[in-house]
Amino acid sequence: MEFRTCQACQELFRPRPQVAEQRFCSAAACQRERRRRWQATKRQNDPDYRENQKRVQKAWADRHPDYWRNYRRQHPEYAERNRARQRQRAQDRATGQVAKMDASKAEMPIPSGTYRLSRVVDAALAKSDAWMVEITVITAACASP
Ligand SMILES: [Zn+2]
Fold first, then answer.
1. Does any domain span residue 132?
2. How remote is the CA of residue 127 from the centroid of ligand 1, in Å?
3. Is residue 24 over pLDDT 90?
4. How large is the average pLDDT for residues 24-44?
5. How far is the CA of 11 from the centre of ligand 1 (A)?
6. pLDDT band at 117, cuts 50/70/90?
7. Is residue 131 one of the residues assigned to a domain?
8. Helices (H), 1-113
């Protein structure tokens, strides 16, 4: 019988014959670790999954409005660490050290040229500080000279 080393607890275990690539033993903590790693990888690589998780978590938080308030009250070290990180992020933003994740995709969405900008009158648009415009191409510059 073959033995493998569990990637979480480093103990030897016998893989189940049904799971060819089994890398974690069946201990509950190791299975939790396996799922945690899977989820972290998924969040890293799958924007749809990330977006869905965000929506699900927000829905849950909306149904349990006191949960995080109580959690922070019961875990002051967590709350303090969070505040410190928030201060750091604010500082990074202020000094321009934050690179937007999608900044590499920030190519010009519209080629340079001459456009007509017309205001679109929309009664449904209640925000007074937002403009809704229609952009019409008059002449577009040639992309390759
Ligand atoms: Zn294990």
1. no
2. 55
3. yes
4. 96
5. 6
6. confident
7. no
8. 28-45, 47-63, 67-74, 76-94
Instruction: Tally the domains of the chain.
Output: 1
**145 has pLDDT over 50:** no
Residue 125 lies in a domain: no
Reported as type and span, the H/E element at residue 84 is helix 76-94
Is residue 141 exposed (0-12), middle (13-18) or buried (19+ Cβ within 10 Å)? exposed
Q: What does each C-alpha distance from 116 to 11, 125, 129, 134 come to in angstroms?
A: 68, 21, 21, 8
Across 89-93, 134-138, 139-143, least confident range: 139-143
AA letter at 96: G
Q: What is the pLDDT of residues 53-100, one digit of tens each?
A: 999 999 999 999 999 999 999 999 999 999 999 999 999 888 877 665
Assess if residue 138 is contained within a domain.
no
Q: Angle, to 10 degrees, between the axis of helix 28-45 and the axis of helix 47-63?
A: 120
Residues facing 136 on adjacent strands: 116
- Asked whether 109 and 119 are in contact (CB, 8 A), the reply is no
What residues flank ion ligand 1 with Cβ within 5 A?
A: 6, 8-9, 25, 27, 30
Q: Residue 31 belongs to what domain range?
A: 4-94
CB count within 10 Å of CB 11 equals 12
